[in-house]
Design goal:
By secondary structure, this protein is α+β, with helices and mostly antiparallel strands. It has eight helices and seven strands. The longest helix is centred in the middle third of the chain and has 72 residues. It comes from Pedobacter polaris.
Length: about 325
């Protein structure tokens, strides 16, 4: 049983304690003037109907009608509900009393039924108090859960910081050794270290600068190129005057798809064009690569996930298009900045 379930059971236990208290108050207020068994039975019937009124409202009538803006229907149903409960309680009490306790049967008067129906209004009002109390306990539990998750996340973050720092320091040492013997290899190690720092320091942020994002993309492209046997023609066009902010890793999806699905590793005719333009308060990012239907995003979820993320970030204030025409695959998005 986990911590959350334990809390839910505690709420139920509190409700049970409340109902036991209501039953005992009713029972001890009657037992001084009536027989023990009748006081017990009468208190059980009354407490049962109180529960029907309260939970019938907070679990069925209120959420199904009032919260769905069906207030008129809600009022009508409440009146019918309280009337039925009042009449039902009156007839049940009379039936049980006549059957098991009374020597001479009694009849229930109509004013008594009306009184029981009207008295149900007080219990009905109490149902809103119970609803507020339950909402408070649920909110309190959720707050405690969030604080617990936050504390756990902070502890995990502190633990995880040890490994990246060790790796960065180790890479710096390897870079120094490689620089003395193979400067080109050292350059690649430096790019890898920069990418790792981006993942640790920048990607958790809500926004990064365009230059930071571009630097990450350029390092990624440089490392991907060493895995391709033949030379790749890449034309990266950048046209922006201000270092705007944007969510991290948006442009990565298109570039990653090119190297995952749009590169023919056996061909020496791979051509890639990447364009980034800031214009009229919008950022336009476009990639075009020579490809064919067999190498374009085979069952990948990258574009679909990017669309969901853009929807969360910008609502309907973005454009996203992909198309395959002839032997060129184009991916394009436009976002406000």
């Amino acid at each position: 049983m986990n911590f959350l379930n334990l809390k839910k059971i505690t709420i139920k236990q509190l409700q049970w304690l409340a109902w036991i208290a209501i039953f005992l108050v009713s029972f001890f207020s009657m037992v001084t003037v009536d027989a023990f068994t009748w006081s017990l039975t009468y208190s059980l019937i009354n407490t049962g109907f109180y529960a029907i009124i309260i939970y019938g409202n907070i679990n069925w009538l209120f959420p199904r009608y009032y919260e769905r803006n069906k207030k008129f229907i809600y009022v009508i149903l409440v009146i019918v509900f309280l009337t039925l409960c009042g009449f039902g309680r009156g007839y049940l009490i009379t039936f049980v009393y006549n059957t098991f306790f009374s020597i001479k049967p009694i009849t229930i008067e109509w004013y008594r039924l009306i009184y029981l129906s009207i008295s149900g209004i007080v219990i009905f009002i109490l149902s809103f108090m119970l609803r507020i109390v339950l909402a408070y306990f649920v909110l309190k539990q959720q707050t405690e859960d969030i604080l617990l998750q936050k504390t756990t996340a902070e502890l995990n973050l502190l633990k995880s910081q040890v490994q990246p720092h060790f790796l960065f320091n180790t890479l710096n040492n390897i870079y120094y050794e490689a620089y003395l013997e193979a400067p080109k290899t050292a350059e690649l190690i430096e790019r890898l270290a920069a990418m790792m720092r981006y993942f640790v320091d920048e990607s958790p942020k809500t926004e990064v600068t365009i230059s930071t994002e571009l630097n990450f993309l350029e390092n990624y492209i440089a490392l991907e190129k060493i895995r391709i046997r033949h030379q790749i023609s890449i034309n990266f066009i950048k046209d922006y005057s201000t270092d705007h902010l944007l969510p991290p890793m948006l442009m990565m999806t298109f570039v990653e798809n090119i190297f995952k699905h749009g590169i023919d590793k056996l061909s020496d005719k791979n051509q890639i064009e990447i364009t980034l333009t800031a214009l009229d308060g919008n950022l336009l990012f476009k990639t075009v690569n020579s490809s064919n239907k067999n190498t374009v995003d085979k069952g990948g979820f990258g574009i679909e996930n990017l669309k969901k993320r853009l929807t969360i970030l910008y609502g309907n204030r973005f454009e996203l298009h992909t198309e395959l025409i002839a032997n060129c695959y184009t991916a394009y998005f436009k976002i406000p900045i």
